[in-house]
Amino acid sequence: MNSFIEWLNKHLVPIAAKIGAVRWLVALRDAFIAIMPAMMAGSIATVLNALVRDIPTKFGWMGFVNSMQWLIGINAMVWTGTLAILGLTWTTPGPLMPFLGTGGNWLGLIIGFLCLGISVLTYMPFVLAANKMMASDSQSDKNTQDAADGSTAEAAKA
């Protein structure tokens, strides 16, 4: 075991130290650490609502659900103040995020639009191929349905 730890210290720790010193990754790590309490509070509220509202409702225990309305209301407020707000921040349009993240630097906005364009160009061939496959599948389904309708019409005439 000691030889494995020595190997990790010799080979892996220097690489991890270099990665850990990159300021952009440090900022990302710190941002996730900062929002973790809000995510945990919202998650606990969601689980509690499932336990005191959703599951008992499925079993028809409405008396229990009605007696827990005070907790359900608190959980709704916690969820709204945590996960709902975090959802709003995560759905900020992509090109706008670098602009806001750099404190209003226009270069960030330009980079954001550049990244959006690269993403569109990257995914475009796959979307076009999927659309073409869906169109050919729907056409073959239509042909199969037409053939089936024709055979049933011929059987009805006979």
The unreliable regions are none
What is the number of strand segments? 0
End-to-end separation? 83 Å
Strand and helix order? HHHHHH
The main β sheet shows up as: none
Protein described:
It is a single chain. The chain is mainly alpha-helical and 158 residues long. 89% of the residues lie in helices and 0% in strands. It is built from six helices and no strands. It has helices at 2-20, 23-58, 62-67, 69-90, 96-101, 106-157. Helix 2 (23-58) runs antiparallel to helix 4 (69-90). The longest helix has 52 residues, at 106-157. The radius of gyration is 28 Å and the shape is extended. The N and C termini lie far apart (83 Å). 4% of the residues are buried. The model has no long low-confidence stretch (mean pLDDT 86).
Structure characteristics:
158 residues, mainly alpha, single chain, 6 helices, extended
Task: Write the topology of this structure.
Layout lengths: L1 H19 L2 H36 L3 H6 L1 H22 L5 H6 L4 H52 L1
Quick summary:
By secondary structure, the protein is mostly helical. The chain has 6 helices and no strands. The radius of gyration is 28 Å and the shape is extended.
